[in-house]
Backbone:
């Protein structure tokens, strides 16, 4: 009998705001065009959360609430909730604490995890370790970001990229009499030398908020586009090939690649490098843009009806830090 408990995804749900910001809308506020954005990013529109006092937790609560209802899960049966985000409602308490309180998860402990666009994958790997150790039987992992709160809509290099959204998955232990489904292998990597290529300059303890930092527009996301593009393609391609090699997988074995939705050209370049056709790549960037920690769970939610029990998926991410990684999993249920 297998001694290691394997974590499997038992359900998905997503939430995106109703308000749509199209490329044509952006033409009215910054020097850009629909053709320019579409050619360089593949993005046609993104969702923006609007309304007073609505933060990341609003979207995350919607996603987790839908997940619990969809999977018929009692909130009090959840042992742990991890929220991956770089746009928490506030520095403290954790956005995860706000979520568990709102949904009466009275038996769960919870915390935030910050790894930029890699956050959801890192959090999913963390959840798998809690399952494997026996510390938890049911874990909710939610990736959520209100990127519009840190986006400079005068900077055409970044404002065209980001949107708001949240996605959540329920992670449980696979059954003792079942063949092995779930998370089979994970690789997570970091290279801190890339920290100044994708970051928010002010707002932390090194450079706290002040009139000067606000006037200098240092509370927005900053990106060195070409450097990040090259690093993302290289790092994601290499980590995908590494996880495939050590699990003896060929492109023919893979049902879907589930990549972070940063730029459609990045996705195409990665697919080409690993020898995978684009019809095996989950893509929804044209509708939602880059929602940072939410992109992977939103993809799983949107493609769920196409997935079958036993499908082999490769998840791959790249984000600020630099952070990147990959997960190989077999899907655990028929949608």
Residues:
């Amino acid at each position: 009998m297998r001694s290691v408990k394997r974590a499997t995804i038992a359900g998905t749900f997503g939430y995106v705001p109703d308000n749509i910001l199209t490329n044509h809308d952006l033409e009215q506020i910054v020097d850009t065009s629909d053709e320019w954005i579409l050619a360089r990013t593949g993005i046609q529109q993104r969702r923006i959360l609007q309304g007073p006092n609505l933060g990341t937790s609003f979207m995350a609560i919607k996603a987790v609430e839908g997940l619990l209802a969809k999977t018929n899960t009692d909130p009090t049966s959840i042992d742990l909730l991890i929220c991956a985000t770089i746009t928490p409602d506030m520095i403290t308490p954790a956005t995860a604490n706000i979520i568990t309180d709102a949904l009466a998860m009275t038996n769960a402990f919870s915390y935030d995890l910050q790894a930029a666009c890699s956050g959801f994958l890192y959090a999913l790997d963390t959840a798998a370790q809690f399952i494997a150790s026996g510390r938890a039987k049911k874990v909710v992992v939610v990736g959520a970001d209100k990127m519009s709160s840190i986006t400079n809509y005068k900077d055409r290099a970044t404002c065209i990229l980001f949107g708001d959204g949240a996605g959540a998955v329920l992670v449980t232990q696979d059954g003792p009499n079942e063949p092995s489904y779930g998370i089979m292998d994970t690789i997570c990597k970091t290279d801190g030398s890339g920290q100044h290529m994708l970051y928010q300059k002010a707002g932390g303890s090194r450079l706290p908020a002040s009139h000067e930092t606000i006037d200098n527009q240092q509370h927005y996301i900053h990106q060195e586009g070409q450097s990040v593009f090259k690093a993302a393609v290289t790092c994601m391609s290499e980590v995908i090939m590494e996880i495939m090699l050590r699990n003896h997988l060929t492109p023919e074995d893979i049902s879907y690649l589930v990549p972070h939705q940063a730029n459609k050209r990045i996705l195409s370049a990665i697919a080409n490098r690993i020898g995978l056709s684009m019809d095996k790549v989950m893509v929804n960037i044209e509708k939602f843009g880059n929602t940072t920690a939410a992109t992977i769970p939103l993809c799983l939610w949107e493609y769920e009806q196409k997935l079958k029990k036993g499908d082999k998926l490769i998840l791959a991410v790249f984000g600020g830090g630099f952070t990147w990684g990959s997960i190989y999993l077999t899907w655990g249920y028929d949608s």
